[in-house]
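Re: [ENG-882] Designed sequences occasionally contain unexpected residues at chain ends

Forwarding the minimal case from QA. Structure tokens:
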């Protein structure tokens, strides 16, 4: 198992200018004929990647080659003696129906689909399967008309025809692209069609291809696509560059979606949505992912990555773009709050454990393991910091330069840096450390006020703990968007400071009274701010003009209070509700009508996982006990207010998915959660029964799931009866049960792994049951270790069919060192058991071995 290192990068020996592919599609034996026009760039042999390919014939400039002219291994085809410019033709056989990895060409439901990023193309044909080889593609597909009437690939459909029972179609993509952006679909699908006129007046034909019957659930995806196309024109001046844009939905998919040029392939979960079947969060997920993949057309496809170490160059930037898009649709503050909530829950956690890696890793065994929240979400934070540091105008200029300078080429993080640097006079050099060093900086502060001089001095310090392979950290360049508040909560000064040294002092003049600083407004850097007193937090929670920091102060306050309660509980003391927390929740609730979306976020207590991350030895049972006790106490104390809020926000139509309706439901369901925690379960039961809206039905079910009695069992039985035929809704049925805090959750999950609708071959189903269970903060960590055993058993079996998903599940045990010694040894034993498995995939090997290191 050999590591690939960034430092070893060498440019390709041969480039491919054009490639013609001809597919005769058959589940058991697909024939792929490839014609490559190759051009030498450097001395050396021609080495092509290829896996699971049966080579049938090979020709160089039209002449058939004998076995003595090439060397074939498990993963490559090498030709030593080749000219500088030539044509290579290969013919291979592949077997889509046995491809369970869902990488390359595979079968799902009604047909053939591909997933080539990052290294799936080498399972289709012999090719230099690396993103810095960009070629123009001409693709012909041939298939049985009765089974696969729809034939799609990248670019434009230039010819089609029929021959007997077969049909064929030729697609040509005028834009050079890396092999990972190749795609084909051959299936029995129907299209929802529309069109979009670009800013310069070109007409683009839009198609969303789904299984018959699903057309009624494509409206939101189509709306989002057109909206995103317009937004990218308005915001970044980026126009779509082909005459056709197709999206095809597939139910077996490892990721959320894929940005193949002109032919995005989507997990059905991010296409299909109707108010009866999808929650408001699902609707937002569809919109976000549709926008994200569309935005890749420029940041990913037109400008791609030189190598996979640069993955964040396209992913971090495109996540930033989709975040900005979503912020422009609803409430920017609420969007920021929910993004930061998940960054802290996932990326901060990874950054603090054995799997921590920089935004640009220096080394990997298996690139599929690096599609992480660090590459994506922390990468987006780095892009955001560029903008915070240089300002919106310069950032837009930097984007224009980046696109213009790197169009139709494979770029690096340095190219992005150079474009931004060219747009500003601020020296950005030190920002590169965010790409190179892993770990979450901790920032602390001291302050002093001099009444005579009327100055206020703020001293900021940064420190970053060691991460694997990086014992000593250099200081980061940290933008600190801040304000100084007077005693009434008014801003007396606002500024963005730059903290670039281990310690730096900033003096502010004309400050007559000691102010209250509000630091890292709108989360201006992915750091942990330490040392805020409760009193300060309570003041900021009530007064800060920055909505994000108001929310954050309340979360930090609640975290401190709940962590104290955990200590008290561990010491055998009874739970007592903190008066300040009660006051803050009361104020939020009574003021909810002003901004219900914000209030719904502010009413949520910090997640169990966040509390866990703040403890030196995680006590999952105490955390759960305390958090539930707090919810119950708040629900009981504020019963009248929660009932009033529930009633006040209940009046929205089931079919309404406007921002206003989403916010109202969020607030109503937050109230429902507290009332259920306080024992008022009839409300949840009634809401479950009356549901015509999946957000409401599911919110009710989540509360009913906590009751370990027949009310729960009846609800799940009736939900199952109603939705058994709808895979995406059935996923929710599995996942709510796996996430429940009820005492019998583990046993129920064990039973569900044997359910007839549980299917290890379907990644959505695996994530819905096993992924959700592994994220259940208390039940997965049940002291017996049976939860770990269940996860490891799944990984064991899954590794043989789908190593990508198996490796992903393994990360759930990455934080094993944070638990008590008993749980530590139980998790460690399972990781060791996985590692000892015969024929373990490199994917899972990398995650298990790094977790144990
Ligand atoms: N680029 C794809 C992810 C591919 C995942 C490969 N394991 C989707 C996206 O980020 O837009
Ligand atoms: Zn992406």
């Amino acid at each position: 198992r050999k590591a690939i290192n960034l430092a070893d990068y060498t440019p390709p020996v041969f480039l491919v200018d054009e490639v013609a592919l001809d597919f005769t599609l058959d589940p058991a034996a697909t024939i792929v004929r490839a014609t490559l026009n190759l051009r030498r760039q450097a001395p050396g042999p021609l080495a092509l990647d290829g896996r699971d390919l049966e080579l049938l014939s090979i020709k160089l400039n039209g002449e058939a080659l004998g076995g003595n002219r090439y060397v074939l291994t498990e993963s490559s085809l090498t030709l030593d003696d080749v000219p500088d410019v030539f044509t290579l033709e290969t013919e291979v056989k592949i077997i889509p129906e046995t491809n369970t990895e869902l990488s390359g060409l595979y079968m799902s439901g009604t047909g053939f689909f591909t997933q080539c990023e990052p290294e799936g193309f080498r399972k289709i044909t012999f090719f230099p399967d690396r993103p810095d080889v960009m070629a123009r593609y001409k693709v012909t597909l041939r298939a049985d008309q009765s089974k696969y009437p729809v034939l799609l690939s990248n670019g434009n459909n230039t010819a089609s025809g029929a021959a007997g029972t077969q049909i064929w179609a030729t697609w040509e993509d005028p834009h050079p692209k890396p092999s990972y952006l190749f795609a084909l679909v051959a299936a029995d699908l129907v299209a929802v069609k529309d069109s979009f006129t670009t800013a310069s007046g070109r007409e683009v034909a839009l198609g969303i291809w789904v299984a018959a019957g699903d057309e009624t659930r494509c409206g939101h995806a189509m709306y989002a696509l057109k909206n995103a196309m317009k937004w990218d024109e308005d915001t970044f001046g980026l126009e779509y560059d082909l005459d056709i844009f197709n999206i095809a939905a597939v139910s077996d998919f490892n990721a959320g979606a894929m940005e193949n040029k002109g032919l995005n392939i989507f997990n059905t979960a991010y296409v299909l949505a109707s108010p009866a079947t999808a929650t408001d969060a699902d609707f937002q997920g569809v919109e976000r992912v549709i926008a994200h993949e569309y935005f890749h057309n420029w940041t990913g496809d037109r400008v791609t990555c030189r190598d996979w170490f640069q993955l964040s160059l396209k992913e971090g930037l495109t996540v930033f773009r989709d975040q900005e898009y979503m912020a422009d649709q609803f409430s920017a503050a609420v969007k920021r709050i929910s993004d930061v909530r998940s960054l802290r829950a996932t990326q901060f956690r990874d950054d603090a454990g054995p799997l921590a890696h920089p935004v640009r890793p220096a080394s990997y065994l298996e690139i599929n393991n690096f599609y992480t929240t660090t590459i994506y979400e922390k990468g987006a934070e780095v892009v955001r910091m560029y903008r915070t540091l240089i300002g919106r105008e310069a950032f837009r200029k930097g984007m224009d330069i980046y696109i213009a300078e790197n169009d139709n080429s494979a770029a690096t993080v340095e190219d992005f840096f150079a474009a931004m640097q060219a747009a500003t006079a601020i020296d950005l050099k030190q920002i590169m450390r965010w790409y190179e060093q892993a770990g979450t900086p901790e920032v602390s502060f001291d302050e002093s006020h001099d009444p005579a001089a009327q100055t206020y001095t703020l001293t900021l310090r940064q420190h970053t703990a060691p991460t694997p392979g990086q014992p000593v950290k250099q200081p980061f360049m940290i933008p600190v968007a801040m304000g100084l508040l007077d005693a009434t909560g008014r801003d007396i000064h606002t500024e963005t400071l730059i903290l670039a040294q281990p310690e730096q002092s900033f003096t502010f003049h004309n400050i007559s009274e000691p102010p209250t600083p509000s630091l890292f407004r709108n989360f201006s850097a992915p750091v942990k701010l330490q040392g805020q007193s409760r009193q300060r937090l309570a003041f900021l929670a009530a007064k800060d003009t920055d909505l994000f920091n108001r929310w954050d102060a309340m979360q930090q306050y609640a975290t401190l209070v709940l962590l104290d309660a955990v200590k008290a509980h561990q010491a055998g003391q009874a739970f007592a509700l903190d008066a300040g927390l009660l006051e803050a929740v009361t104020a939020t609730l009574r003021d909810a009508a002003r901004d219900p979306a914000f209030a719904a976020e502010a009413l949520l207590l910090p997640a169990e996982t966040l509390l866990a991350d703040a403890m030196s030895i995680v006590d999952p049972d105490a955390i759960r006990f305390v958090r539930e006790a707090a919810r119950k106490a708040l629900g009981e104390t504020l019963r009248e207010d929660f009932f009033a809020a529930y009633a006040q926000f209940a009046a929205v139509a089931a079919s309404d998915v406007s921002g206003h309706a989403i916010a109202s439901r969020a607030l109503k369901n937050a109230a429902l959660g507290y009332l259920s925690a306080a024992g008022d379960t009839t409300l949840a039961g009634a809401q479950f029964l009356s549901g015509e809206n999946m957000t409401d039905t599911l919110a009710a079910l989540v509360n009913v799931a906590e009751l370990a009695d027949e009310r729960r069992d009846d609800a799940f039985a009736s939900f199952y009866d109603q939705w058994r035929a709808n895979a995406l809704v059935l996923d929710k049925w599995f996942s709510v049960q796996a996430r429940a805090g009820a005492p019998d959750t583990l046993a129920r999950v064990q039973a569900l792994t044997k359910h007839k609708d549980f299917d290890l071959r379907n990644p959505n189903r695996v994530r819905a049951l096993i992924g959700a269970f592994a994220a259940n903060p208390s039940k997965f960590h049940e002291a017996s270790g049976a939860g770990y055993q269940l996860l490891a058993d799944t990984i064991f079996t899954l590794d043989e069919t789908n190593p990508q998903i198996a490796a992903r599940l393994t990360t759930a045990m990455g934080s094993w060192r944070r638990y008590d010694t008993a749980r530590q040894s139980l998790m460690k034993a399972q990781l060791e058991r996985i590692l000892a498995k015969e024929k373990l995939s490199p994917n899972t090997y990398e995650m298990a071995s790094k977790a144990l290191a």
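QA comment: On inspection the terminal residues look reasonable. Residues 117-118, 254-255, 257-259, 292-293, 296, 315, 368, 371 surround (3S)-3,7-diaminoheptanoic acid (ligand 1) (CB under 6 Å). Proposing we downgrade this to a documentation issue.
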